[in-house]
Amino acid sequence: MADRGFPLTIMWLRSAAYFYAKSLCRRHLLQKSIPKSWHNKCLASRDWFLSFRKRHTQLTLRIPEGLSRARAEAFNENRVQTFLNDLQPFYEQLDIKNYPNLIYNCDETGLSSVPNVSVKVIALKGSHELQKLTIGERGTLTTYLAIFPI
């Protein structure tokens, strides 16, 4: 699910572990009873989660980058390759390859008045570009633009 923009949160995993253990108890497949502390919040305990992480060393906790559905669908390998193929003739037409001092890097950042609080999610170690689909909320956006020569 993480590769589709819905990474696994700690609370979801603890909840799933609780309900799985509960279903095993009903079918008499669990040797021990479920700890009483799990029933209070319908969650497996933090100690269970820490033990789970020790058993599964290939997992790590990360904070995902927020990404709208439109951007997630628009950013794919084919579209990036098309952009780069269109950029090549443009470079040749302006003869920019011979004048690298004409190439600038332009970065922007936006400061939103709508806070975006992300929780840590569970991901495989070494996974890149962990993203979480978000809903675009309205608010004030202040944009900062910086241009630097390369």
Notes on the structure:
The protein has 150 residues and is an alpha+beta fold. It is 38% helix and 24% strand. Strands 1-5-2 form a three-stranded antiparallel β-sheet. The relative contact order is 0.21. The model has no long low-confidence stretch (mean pLDDT 79).
| Helix percent band | 25-40%
Question: Beta fraction of the residues?
Answer: 15-25%
What is the string of helix and strand elements? Answer: EHHHEEHHEEEE
Mean pLDDT, all residues: 79
Oligomeric description of these chains:
single chain
What descriptive keywords fit this protein?
150 residues, alpha+beta, three-stranded antiparallel beta sheet, two-stranded parallel sheet, 5 helices
List strands and helices in order, with pairings.
Blueprint: E1 8-9, H1 10-26, H2 36-41, H3 46-55, E2 59-62, E3 65-68, H4 69-74, H5 77-94, E4 104-112, E5 121-124, E6 131-134, E7 141-149
Parallel strand pairs: 3-6
Antiparallel strand pairs: 1-5, 2-5, 4-7
In short:
It contains 5 helices and 7 strands.
